[in-house]
Amino acid sequence: MKKLICVFVSLLMLFGICGISAFAEGTGASAKVYVTIADGDGKLVLTQEEITVTDRNDDGILTIDEALFATHEAKYEGGAAVGYGSAYTEYGLSLTKFWGDISGSFGYYVNNKSSLSLADEVKDGDYITAFIYTDTTAYSDKYSFFDKNTLTVTADEEITLTLSAAGYDASYNPITVPVKDATITVNGEATEYNTDENGKVTMKLSKAGTYVISATSTTDTLVPPVLTVSVKGKTPVISTPESGTIETITPETSATDTINNEEMKSPKTGDNSNTDFYIMLLAVSAMGIVFSTSTLKRKTNEK
Fold this sequence. Notes:
Layout: H1 2-27, E1 30-38, E2 44-54, H2 64-75, H3 80-83, E3 85-89, E4 92-97, E5 106-110, E6 113-114, E7 127-132, E8 142-146, E9 150-154, E10 159-168, E11 174-178, E12 183-186, E13 189-194, E14 200-203, E15 209-216, E16 222-223, E17 227-232, H4 255-265, H5 272-302
Parallel strand pairs: 1-7, 8-16, 9-17
Antiparallel strand pairs: 1-2, 3-4, 5-6, 5-7, 8-10, 10-11, 10-14, 12-13, 12-15, 15-17
């Protein structure tokens, strides 16, 4: 009976350890996402900040709510307790406070696609953009985005981009439309580059560094798009002033040097010491052949 009790207790301890291990694995879920935030003035306050999302409720799913909570904890002064709030409403899990704003006029997209609620799942490498509407009456703010999130180029290399905006068709199905006549900005400063009727623009960046590319419009209220560009410097080229080609410099070689080099590589023609050596070697070889032949004949005769 004691043995049975010991076995039973051992099994309980084993299952308990396994259960604790499984629980620990479940609570360890995390992911790195990249968060962009625009405030109520339409200004970027975060641009593709890397945020580590953790599973706060231990349900094994990482959500937009948890990502935005983690963003406020890491980047908002005072943390999520001051700047962030969410609650379940008739529309599902919704924002009640965002970046300190309590207007309720918020939007958020994951990988440039509209989400149903804060409970939507996110995964490692996702790009999340959340914003406060600047137009709190007609909600005319257009979510806009480039066809690239990040880019690495060389200085003065041409960059071709397409700027689009999220919209709806006559049946309220989500669509994307080109944003034309938008002015491209670099680190918040307007440039001479503008999108064409298809939302395309070709531009260059001349100096090495990291730049935030965005856009503004005089006809549309844009949620500012974000593209991070890393520009590498050009590889230096050494050239001659006259020809502009790479110059290969080799040391001058005199006739005397050539002769001396040749003397080191091979013996002079008619070198008597080498000739005598070869004659002696041939003589020794011939004597060996004669000796071998005579010995062979003698053995044959004895037989």
